[in-house]
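Blinded run. Sample ID left blank on purpose so nobody reads anything into the name before looking at the predicted structure. Input follows.
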Amino acid sequence: MKISELAQHYNEEVTVQGFIENIRDLQYVQFVIIRDGSGKLQVTIEKNDDNKEMNEVISNTSLESTIKVTGTVLESPKVKLGGKELIPTCLDITSISLPELPIDMKNKENTLRETRLDYRFLDLRRPENNLLFKCETILEHAMREYCINNDFMEIHSPKISAKAAESGAEVFKLDYFGQEACLSQSPQFYKQMAMAAGFDKVFEIGPAFRAENSHTSYHATEINMADVEISWINSVEEVMDMEEAWLKYAFCKVYEKYGEQIKEQFHTELTNLDVKFPRITFKEAKQILKDECHYVAEKEEDFEREEEKLLCEYAKKNFDSDFIFVTKFPFSARPFYHMLDEEGLTNSYDLLYRGVEITTGAQREHRYEILKKQIIEKGINPEDLEFYLNFFKYGCPPHGGFAIGIARIMMQMFEIDNIREATFIYRGPTRLNP
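Blinded prediction complete.
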């Protein structure tokens, strides 16, 4: 039985299992705190002749060992852990932990992050990490649920490709039976192939690989991405509308189930989902940064991290929104497949959330001749992308879409300062284990 279910079984005999988090071995009584994925429980064992065998077992047991306890659940208002305790009739240590733990389980700040990552299986036992990945499960489920409720198809694109999905992309190369191949860094081409196939609306949640030798707090070499693409659109505004509704739906599902626990464990205020995400152009954003934030960046055709942070502060102050869309990026800062408007700007956007870009989306260029021209303008030989260009030779619907990194959005939702903490098992330039 889960610990969270015990309040419905007062004065009944139950059996629970968990990790031993703490032991207080006093003169006349032993208090054992056990933990499972649903909560914590105090097991109270009086020291007497009847309990002598259990007392000896507990006195010789190390923390983080696993235990199975059978006993009676009592309502005890003085007990801080949920106002209940278990009085055992028997117990069994189901596995023994070494007495010296390699990381501090009570305070993660006392252990270097790299050491905690080495022992990630222990680090993940913390209640806040357990909650984090429960919330990620609900988030992904809600993303799927929204898509399925709105007639999307789920696709599973290959992760071994002959070409990179973006020009100049840094990819992991591998030998594929004598041919050079690479790990896919985006399902972008395959999403667009689905549009050409008449699939209308598709989504995918799966891995992507980025061979970027980056050691920032926001990057990883293996990431979990949610990708969406929709056909028969008239403008990029429809893509933004869809993403906003999709995110609000998914966030609401997380908050409905775990909102109070998020506040308790992560001490963060939840995002206000009642307001519409503000939308400004790239040009307007740069002007706001200059006039209101008194910040002028060296980078003129894209944003620096500090600019993303300042724009989110602007959105919070002026619109009470943790999100802000920025549209109309210069073509020089965007891939060849983004559609251009009459001024030569892209029908694209970034979605910023709490200081970080979490999404790039766009209306795609679906017209063969224009797409080929934009490929050449980017300095790419069209013959290198012949398989991709074939998608557009036989008619292709106007379409657009976006991609979002799951760990990055979890990082921002919970106000975690490093993507390593928001990833189940992190992969970076110097980390291949565990």
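Unblinding after everyone has recorded impressions. The first helix runs from residue 52 to 59.
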